[in-house]
Amino acid sequence: MLRDYDIFEVLPDGSKIWRVNAYGVENALIALTNVASKTKNECYAINIRSKDIIGRLNEQKPPT
Questions:
Q1: pTM
Q2: Cα separation of 46 and 55, whole Å?
């Protein structure tokens, strides 16, 4: 079953901004890669209905 996924960008203040919607895991991961390649901010792909996150890029690590 193919699902809809939304790609979000996490801004430096922690707020999230929707970037694009994709249908199916493969398309969602391609869209995620495209969005993340244009920013240094963390981006992720999520199915809003199930809350499943299928990928994260540019993940921000807390300083150690």
A1: 0.90
A2: 8
Interval 34-54 mean pLDDT:
97
The sheet carrying 52-57 orders its strands as 16-23, 4-10, 42-47, 52-57
Residue among 52, 49, 59 nearest 25 (CA):
52
Length of the chain measured in residues = 64
Residue 7 · residue 47 · CB < 8 Å: no
Sign of CA dihedral 14, 19, 24, 25: negative
> In this predicted model, what pLDDT tens digit does every residue of 4-40 receive, in sequence order?
999 999 999 999 999 999 999 999 999 999 999 999 9
